[in-house]
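Shift notes (night). Ran Cytochrome P450 while the centrifuge was going.
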Amino acid sequence: MSFDNFTLWQPRFNDSVSSTRIAFGVPAVALFLVLFTYLRGLYRVYLHPLSDFPGPKEAAKSRNWLYLQTLKPYPEDVYDELHDHYGAKAIRIAPNELHISDPHLYKVIYKQSNPFPKEKAFYAGFNVPPPGLFSATDEAKHRELRRHMNPMFSRSAVLKLEDLVRGRLADLENKIERLCDKQVIDFYGAFRLLTTSIIMEWCLADSGNILEEQPDGFGSQFLTAFSVGAAAAKIFQQYPLLPKISNALPFGLVKIFSPEIGSFAQLADFAKQGVYRWRDSNGSKAAVDHPVIIENMAQLSNDALVGLVLEILVAGSDTSASSMTVALFEILRNPSIEKRLVQELDAAIPDKNDLPPVQTLEKIDYLTACVKEGLRVASAVPSRLPRVVPHDSSEPFIVDEKIVPPGTIVSMSAHTIHSSVDIWGPDARLFNPDRWLVPEAKGLDQYQVHFSKGARMCIGQNLVPIEMLVALASILRRYKITFPSGFLPPRRVDNFTIELERGLPLKVSPRA
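Came back to this:
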């Protein structure tokens, strides 16, 4: 049988009818979208359950307004201005989100028992494999992970890291002395290398010799990935499909399309390589004289362990470094504070090459006060931390005499608490160590929220003060440090953690 005379069936279209449908269909869809957006905006501004709370109309209409604020150098300044402008402790910064400035409500939102749950979309934006520690939104899984990790981060366990801290600080000081005659020393970069090398060794028993990655400088590809990669979280929070897409694509392709997301993937790849090296060694103990975190978390899957290491590397390096840098800058720009601190260090440390143990350094009251004040003023994680008003609360959540509906996202920040004149007085934004040396200072500790508060408080709360005590005591005892000509103060940029644009370049010379 021959098919030569058969013609395959093909659908036939009336070209004029199709063109007409397209001509009317496209504008109709566009008109529908415009009308929908307009009506949705009207509803959100005037009829939404949060319509009684003040704020910019654009913020009420769409989350785009909030996203644009996160791209500014320091969004918390914008929210401060709005609180002042409206005279309100709760302002609307998104269709379903309020920013809160009442310091007394911090303990309600971030309380120890049954805190408000984390807002899932915000923390998913960090794109860390579950269960995570900081990014976990499942409270039961977080409690279980925290239960395993708490012993490693206790004060007694962290004190076992003192030799590690001193060793890496000695390496840094050797580099400073090698370079200080030739150039100014960028202490922000130096402190970032110091804290990153410490946390890398604690996590993975390997710092990758990051302190000498640039023999004549204080930069690192790893630190660049920190800075650029953090911007990816803001993108992911606004566009929640992007993490899934980027995770499915080859690393090289992602980096071409978005350097920010590519750098984020680079961080994850570093953590993955460290975990796999340890797994390949069959979990053998590292040849180091300090605890190693991954050796105590072998029960986790590889992906979960990578996510955990990634979180600890980021959280345990930049926050410490920025706090150290801000403290050193504030000490140096206040000559009376510098003079008093150096005098106390000279008296307590007769030999600059023989630094006392941490527990002895803690007894130098003015040093401890400078560390506390540095942590407060730095507010190393200044960003808002969104939570959700629970539906099963025994009593309503009230701000400005208004009930906040369950399901509403509410957020506060360390910046808000640390700059509150109601707590710290009229000099709240000034560096004043003396505030910690008066009898009533004990009541101020409850308002130190640089590590947050409650059940989700930063697990590294015991390490950072020790790093700061040791580093500030040693550096100010060993060196005379001054501002170079043409010095410009660091510019604070909120990249979830604080980054200090321009760094902290200083002239250094050894003291007798």
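The longest helix spans residues 15-47. The chain has a mean pLDDT of 87.
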